[in-house]
Model the fold of this input.
Amino acid sequence: MTQPLGASSLTTSPQPPALRGPSARRPRRRRPVLVALALLVLGIAFGAAAFGSLIFPDAMTQDILASQLPPGSPGHPLGTDELGRDVLQMSVAGARSALLGPVIVALGSMACGVVLGTLAGYQRGWIDFAVSRWTDLLLALPVLLAAIVVSGVFGGGYWVTVVLLIVLFSPSDIRIVRAGVLEQSARPYIEAAQMLSLSRWRVMFRHILPNVTSLVVTNAMLNVAFALVAFSSLSFLGVGVSPGIADWGRQLTDGRAIMFVNPAAVFMPALLIVVVAVAANLVGDWIGQRLSRVGEDVR
Amino acid sequence: MALTSTGTLARVAVATAAGALALAGCTPTSESEPSATPDVVIGEDTGEEIESITVALPGSLSSLYVGQESGILNYYIAAVTQEGLLSIDADGALQPGLAESWEQPDPVTYVFDLRDDAVFQDGTPVTADDVVFSLEMARDETQSPGLAYYLTNVDTIEKSGDAQVTIRLLEPDAAFAANMTSAGAAFITSQAFWEEHGGDVGTSTSLLLGSGPYQVTEFVPDSHVAFERVDTWWGELPAVKSIRVDFISDESTRLLAAQSGDVDIAFNVPFAQAAQWEALDDMRVTYVNDLSYVGLYFNIGVAPFDDPAVRQAIAHAVNRDAFVSTLLDGHGEAATAIMTPESLTSVHSPEDARALLATIPQWEYDLEAAKAALAESSVPEGFTTEILTPNTGPQLGTAAQALAQDLAEVGITLNVREVPIEEWLASLDPSAGYGLNYMWYFSTLGDPAEIPTYLIGAGNPAQYDNAEVLELLSQVGAETDPAARIDLLVEAETLQAEDAINIPLWWGQSATGFANDLGVTDFSPFTFVSTWPTQLYRAGE
Amino acid sequence: MVAVRVLGVLGVLWVLSMVVFAMMYLAPGDLVKNLLGNRPSTPEAIAAVREQYRLDDSVVEQYLHWLGGVLTGDLGQSIRLQVPVIDAIGDRLPLTAALSALAFLIAVAVAVPLGVRSAVKAGGWLDRIGGALAVLGLSAPTFAVGLVLLYLFAYYVPIFPIYGGGDGGLDTLRHLVLPAVTLALGLGAIIVKLTRTAMLRELESDYVTFARARGLSPRVVNRLALRNAAIPIVTGASLVLTFLVGGTVLAETTFALPGLGTLLQDSVLFKDLPVVQSLTLFVAAVIAVIALLADVAYLLLDPRVRRQMGAAS
Done:
């Protein structure tokens, strides 16, 4: 019944010390400067998400029957969009909608993954069977296609998309945690813990879980990036965020219509999505390495 | 007659509204003549043959047979290969088609004499039996769900001579003859062909057989449909030899395809992109009134829209002049009625038609009056409601957002939700429970009664049940004098306007992109529902 | 073992068919309205259409009718396209398969060597470029990449056709280049990461250290490590496949290709249930089969898991 899992190979796996080469040879993957930059980008982005509405309270209620202006117009450094709204203001105001959803998706699917993955990996038996079939089912659903159908059923909208993505993203978390737990539970220290007749729950959450934390946190960061991209793809397919809401994905989709009149209306949100997703990816990888090292030190 | 598409048209929301420094309240254009990009001069007809042209459609067709899928683009494409008994000329007047003449011996009887030189593209002659069969199939709800409605008033269709078909109606209908065109419900095909394919015509395997100047050679849904010129047509041999229609659902892709010179004709260019199409070196954009109507209507079975004061408050918040001048970039006309001015041109001059329609009472854009009306209503504190906009009509979405801003000032919160065209269609059903709705309707016939009958007649989507209006509309059906019909319709529209049921927004235009070396004669609102490829010519420098 | 898995897969497909059926049943939109269009309609017309498509039956009856058809080998008729479902899918399958295969090929051809080199020379310039590309590939929305490519190839380097599926053979291949590259970017990013991680892991393991100590040439050592690293790379296939299936809708829409992705999307919106049912099950079955093969390979290849399986059962 074992599910092997490729998904776990995506990220840095925790290495038992015995299997590792001399630590001197372990390459440092990411330049700290790069990571610092990525953290800065995320900081600014989340700052905009938190306080953007204070800086530009009127981003979405501008005089929307005004004209389309190219970048560099007076008062509109990035020009205006197809409704005459300022692109810069919308980009700042759009951070909240663009980031909040992905973060909730990542946290939600992480929670699902930890609970179900640990149960399945450690308890085995029917729970494992049920959870594994459940992940099979979800993995057999292409995310975008499922989203189109489900958005239809529940009338679409932002929060429907959030819940949907949590459900659809959770299999990767479940599998990662489960695979990690499987790997860990075959280790001698777990056998030792069992011999000390510690309770199963205690073994599960106190001893196994910390060893898969790095994977889970890394995956959560990657999920933020994935969800950011998925939200914009859904807007592109016409089932994402409704018009009239400041959101990068929506801006990107709408801005394509006037890409020759005001290229900034499409490239600005595209750039923001890509840059933030890159930053989330970098930070995710970095956290993964840090935590796996910390974990070893503690152990 | 039909909506942009019930199928797969441009499902992607391409954004909106063209800009331009239009001042609110400036007069919208009112000419019914097509207007092209001003600085482009198209050369004379060189008489050259044109090897092939590529037409780019903003979405796919799923069937070539209009009875199966009856979006406006289906009509455009079917007209390439199929003909009706009659045809519509540039002025909207009926002309001979497969029938070389027709007469109406009494109000319910129509006799069509078929021309003797009409031949299907497979070489077999068009017989009276084929015509009767095609029309019988068109009135069958399961064979032709998209056409059956227009023939519900038909009692019998009979072959009354070797080359003569007689149609009897249940009740007189002055507008019936127009249904016998390829802008209506007459798509004449061969009985043998239909039966050979068990009725599944218009599909990728059966294709479609007609008597027009072009034969379908290939149809791949979501990809393309190809036509070849045939020499069996009774008319003059057209200049274009082969036509390939490509379905490009993403508007950015379509624009880039035109940029790289791959496109000769682009149907329904979105206004938001019109300026970019006009800027292309070898394309021009031509605008023509497309007989479409866009308006709001209230489902009065849904609270609080049962309250006239609420409806008036919203009606006063509609800034239709600004919608037209800014969102449509002037390519449309603020509507004063449900009927389009073009539908009156058989009787009135364009100016008179507009003057007549302007006599119908209007709710002026006046936010103070809107607030006053709301204060008088059952919900003086305001309320929240939702409107669905179809994703194939981005200009409807932007207009709704603009309306939402004005309504916010009045105290009404309007949430705008963009949905796939199919979901929007379903929401038009009164039982869907949406109080404030869009109506977006393309007429192909230009019959003045067509849209009012739908919107305020029996079983209308607003659940508006005004006995006086219904009585007027039944008189319209019986009245044979066109001028008198129009007067009755104006009367009915006046009643509904006073009740603020339908709030007309604009009469639409469509923008068509043409390559500069491609000329088109007599371009009119009716061009694309006739055998339009015959009007194309190679333009000189 | 495998038999149980096959039964499991069949069970999953069965549940999926019910879930999809139920969702389509509940989804907003109305088949009758889609067929009749935006116009007045008579009650008789509505009744006739409802009768024709069995819309008045209960949802359970409708489902059983569909299931009965499938079990007897009849997938039904597409309501939207009016052709048998098997044809509707069969007509588009080659294009989507070719697109996916080409994208996969490009991704593997570039990403595996890049991943291996990145791991062998970890921290080197190639590693950094590879890493940057991988992160970028994961971070850029597919349709945005497609748009950028379209823009480039429409304006500056007009060597590839920018839309449509071509006329078969080499022409189709030419038409598929841009969409395949678009998809390959995201796909390649995943594979680079997979390969690099797996290789790093092998290169740090004791047997590699030992092999190096014995003086085997780096070439031989790397080949040895790659052989072992192949296991996790191969098992990543199911993940990659789902990514590909989702991505094809975006690429097909952007490049106006008549493939399965657009077919599914259109059919869902039109409520063309027979097509949606068959297609979702087909896609799910393909993914499940690949996952099954990957699992079997994993079981056969990894002695540790095999041993543990033996102990557990």
Q: What stands out?
A: The radius of gyration of chain C is 24 Å. The longest helix of chain C spans residues 85-120. Chain C touches chain A through 77 residues (CB under 8 Å). The mean pLDDT of chain C is 83.
